[in-house]
Structure formats: structure tokens, C-alpha cells
Amino acid sequence: MTDSTSPRHPDDARTAILDGRTSLGIEFGSTRIKACLVGEDPTEVLAVGGHEWENRFEGRVWTYSLADVWSGLQAAYADLVADARRRHGVVPQRFGAVGISAMMHGYLAFDADDELLVPFRTWRNTSTGPAAAELSYRFGRNIPLRWSIAHLHQAILDGESHVPDLRFVTTLAGYVHWRLTGRKVLGVGDASGMFPIGSTTGDYDAGLVATYDALVTDRAPGLRLAELLPEVLRAGEDAGTLTTAGAALLDPSGALRPGARFCPPEGDAGTGMVATNSVAPRTGNVSAGTSIFAMVVLERPLAHAHHELDLVTTPAGDSVAMVHCNNGASELAAWVGLFSEFAVAARAPVGTDAAYDALFRSALEGEADAGGLLAYNHLAGEPIAGLSEGRPLIVRTPDSRLTLANFMRAQLYGVFGTLALGMSVLAGEGVELDRMYAHGGIFRTAGIAQRFLAGALDAPVTVGATASEGGAWGIAVLASYLSASGDQDLGTYLRDRVFAGAAFDTVDPVPDDVAGFAVFLDRYRAGLAAEAAAVEAL
User: Which structural domains are found in the chain, ordered by start?
Assistant: First the structure.
């Protein structure tokens, strides 16, 4: 990816923006909405924008208001426009292509008048246990708590009053795309986190759809699942155009003109795969943010169903095993914030980036097993760890060595703890990887979180230039792929057009880290009983 503050030809970027020979990607992450504008060469970023936002825990439901969705989108877009004006002296008025991406899963339910029936239930909610268990049994495959079908089925099991009025269910990316284009569609990768996708059709598994309709025929008379779900599209397929009303939603200033083509809306897992060139078999990536998950593209079907593994797809429809953990770097960020507050109290304030850098680097001096310390990052429930709710914990024995270095190493290990539990299940299936890529803000401090992840996975970990802003760039790349999809499959396009000259940094596992993390993980697994007791008692 090229920083366009020093473009090869100074007038080219300006002309491309004025002519609309650009692709815009917008991704709704858990804590930040990001916008990214690329030129005809998708590796050249012309402008970026962002907006901070946060989920709310209201009525025991993790949610975002739809008002915050739109105000946040407009703020991120306005920030991108300001960046384009500052860098290139022009305001974008049109785009060649646009893509929307967002957190996967969850439940956005609408009635016949397109009105929201209940507050948006995000992927973070873990109240769908009975539904997920019943569906996993009936379908013969793992249906995670966060999947849209689990949310729908739990609403039916609970006899929620809105169920008879249901006419459409979608994800956050699907919702925003629908409002901007008028089309109720979804990229296959995002759709695979709503309901299982057939292995050969690239659409919802017809047999399981029929099974589900029969399962709820008495409890939800007249419900037909196929009528509720968005149409499924693969990468490169036309997903509509920006309407006049959509342009006004995105840019209330009125400068933006309608007509831009849209690629299928995708989930953050799919854009992470694109941003790391991990869409081919035997490749994988780890995305670390509020949640953390690993995506591994499969060569063959798994032999068994595992509750730790989700079966989803790439944006092109290829099968992927996903290890999804609800809790990522949020607890780590809270501790960095606490140390920053101490620095202010000590009259030696430091910036956020400097605080992360200093604390991460201290972890390099820690003992390989973190000195006997345990750090649990569970702010929310964690199905892989068997937790219905979260209680962040620091646990140590009297003979543990409590130092800043060990504390920070334990915090970084804790980010990868539950992920490592799931990845061990995948290894037991005999799945092999040629390369594992990583992206997310935790990898901005060069080499440190990357090194500890390599130790946790006992595998080389590669980080590229898009590590901290990958998702918005990934959906911008999928938007740009619209113009090439007739000539190349997605994997070839990424390999030959996007990543041919890309620079990557690969870190091999350090043997002492591998051994130390294994000790930490054994202790971590045993200590989950203390975490469960904390959930019960507090």
C-alpha cells in the first residue's frame, strides 16, 4: 500500500478524484468507523477518514443505535473528504465504486414498513445459548451464539412479540448497504455468518433452510426463512448503485452525486482476508481488535463439528474455518489507559502511541511464561472458554513474579489465550498452513504482538503495511475488483494486481516464547475455573 502524500505524479491523484476513477471503502469496526479512498491502482491510498464510536450495554443487550450508525458514517466520510481536500485540494463528488463492510453476525430485524423491530443485537451478545445448542444439534454443525440465525431462533424460543411482524433480517453491513442502494443483498462471506452456506451452491444451504422452516412451523406459523434473509452475492458481482437518497445519507452537504457502483457488502472477517491476501487454501489470518479471530482457508472439509470452530467462507465463497473470540484487545487498552493516567498524575504525561510503545517493549523483558501471572481479557462472554459472561481478571500465586515486564507480557498473552485454545482444535484436525497474516491496531508497535502471536501459534506470522487500517482498505479493494472480476478470480487479482510488489515483515516463533506460552496456556486453561467462579459470584 502506498501513501499518497508523495504520489508518483502529483496531478494524477487530483484528476482521479475529480473524474471519479476511485474506489471508496467504509468499514464499521467495534470502536472505529474507517473510510479509505484508493485510486485506479488499489494499492495507492488517496485519502482516509475515521470516527470513534462505542457499543452500549442497554437492557442487558450489547447494541449500537441506528442514529449512531448514520452520524458515525457521516463523520467518517466527512473526515475522509477533509483529508482529500488537505492532500489534493479537491472534494470528491463521485466514485467509481463503493463498498461497505462491518462487524459480522448479530440481528437487525425489520417489519413490512422497513422499521426496526428491536434494538440492534450485536455479535457480542451471548444470550442465545439454547437456540445455538438446538440448531447445532438439528443441523449437525456448529451454530455459534453470535450468528444471526441463533438470534432469530432465540427470539422464537422466547416468544418475543416482534416475531410475527418479521419481514427482513440482516447484518450491519447489509443494513447500511440497503439504505444506500435500495438493495437487500449481502456478500457470501458475511452471509455465511447469518446462516450456513451450501458447499457447492454459494447460497444458503437449501436443505438446512427446509429443516429450519419445519422446526419452527408450530412456534412461528408462516415463517419462511428464505423470505427473511438477504440475497447472497459473491465478490465481483454487481450489488447496486448509490441512490439519490443514499448520497444524501452519506454526504448531507450535497456535494456527492449518486450513481457509484457497489460491490457486495461484506463482514470484517472477509475484508481482513482480502487485506492480508489470505483467500487461497492453506493461508490464514488473525484480526485483532475488540474481538480477535483467526480465519483459515480449508483445502478439504473438516472431519468433525467443533464448537470452537465456525464454518464460513471467503468473499469468493471458498470454505473457511473461523476461530472467533468475543474478547480481544479492549482490556489491554484499558490497562494502557490506566498507566497513561498514572503518567499524568506523576506530571510526566505521554501520548497514547508512546504509552503503547513503552509498555509493549517492556513485555520483551518479561519471563517467557509471564512469571506465573495470568490475565483474562473477558469483558464479554466467551463461548470457546465456556463463559456466558465476562469478568476481566489478573490472577497470580504468592510466588509469581509481579513486574511491569511480566504484567505486560501476561496481558499480551491474554489477548491470544482463547484464540490459542481454538487453534489447537484446528491443528487436531490436521489443518496445515503455508502462511499466517496478522492485522489490527495491536500490531502497530512493530514486532512485539506479532512475535508473541508467533509464539502462541508456533508458526511464522506476517504483518503487512495495512496492519492497522486493513478492513476499510480491504473493502475498497473489493470495490475496485468490480472492474476486473470478469477477467480474474479474486485470488489471482489480489496476487497479481494488489500484492505483487507488497512489502511484508515475517517473524518466526522464538523457541523460548513457544515453550513459555505453552506453560502459560496450561495455567490459563486450568484457571478458567476461577474466571467462571468470578462470573458466578460477581
Answer: 105-170+195-228 (no CATH), 277-465+508-538 (3.30.420.40)
